[in-house]
Amino acid sequence: MNSLSNHTQLIKTEAKRLGFLSCGISKAAFLEQEAPRLEQWLKRELNGDMRYMENHFDKRLDPTKLVEGSKSVISLLLNYYPSETQNANSYKLSKYAFGKDYHFVIKEKLKVLLEFIQQEIGEVHGRAFVDSAPVLDKAWAAKSGLGWIGKHSNLITQQVGSFYFIAELIIDLELEYDGPITDHCGTCTACIDACPTEAIIEPYVVDGSKCISYLTIELKDSIPTGFQGQMDNWMFGCDVCQDVCPWNRFSKPHREPLFHPNPELLSMSNKEWEEITEETFRRVFKKSAVKRAGYSGLKRNIDFLKKNSD
Question: What 3-state DSSP class applies to 41?
């Protein structure tokens, strides 16, 4: 086995040991196919108030501008599909936010992986990325064969589904590269048909400003009254397009203890959510991704949903 194959296999084996669902590797180079798509999406102002999407356009498309001398983009998937669900009579929370904030959990795993690479292979430099820098996660994961980007714009993997996080390690080490797989959405339009706010305006194109995840997390102003009655009881994020996807019938519960939810979170009813205090919020969402919305943001969302039933 040559050093490229050996190094690649070492990294993939360690990624599996760390609990990652899968690992794919691409050559660090300009994303030619993605460039016109991103430019068009921004031109149509489908990013809503997410102005940060307009920044660092060149870095989003070229990893060598993010990590000097980089040669490989290692893409990794980490399952978050839960074994338990919320009380049926409850405002809804996206499954990814049930446990500890994924940024911390994955960053720690990536740090261990990079240290392993340095110990086993030698002087290798790189950076870890977990949804917190100008990196097109889904594009890189698709390029390295971990799945295809579905009509709802999420990455989908056969036999696995789409309930996973995507992260990258960009390093200055040449490796063996994987290739993309084919699209398996076919004629299915389940996600487009089910979206409560009709945010999937055409196959593979999402109007971010209509997406419930955007409205409940990214949007800092009041939720526009036009969305009254369309939010499907989601108070933080939304899983509808993934829940209806036929490929997610293959989803299996994760094995990451840090993603297990606070039992209180699962049992709370609508009434309890409506009366949530800041103290309860801090206890239930300790080290949670829900802190991104904060207590006031979650209260705003719940109050908006409550108006539907009043």
Answer: helix
The domain segmentation of the chain, as residue ranges, is 3-83+98-171, 190-249+262-309
Between 144 and 132, residue with greater pLDDT: 144
Q: Which residues are catalytic?
A: 131
Domain 3-83+98-171: which topology? NADH Oxidase (3.40.109)
Three-state SS across 56-100? Answer: CHHHHHCHHHCCCCCCEEEEEEEECCCCCCCCCCCCEECHHHCCC
Residue 225 CA to residue 210 CA, distance in Å, equals: 12
Q: What is the DSSP string of 198-213?
A: --EEETTEE-GGG-HH
| CA–CA distance, 125 with 129 (Å, rounded to integer) | 14
User: Would you place residue 52 in the very low, low, confident or very high pLDDT band (cuts 50, 70, 90)?
Assistant: low
Angle in degrees, CA 34, 203, 181, rounded to 5:
55
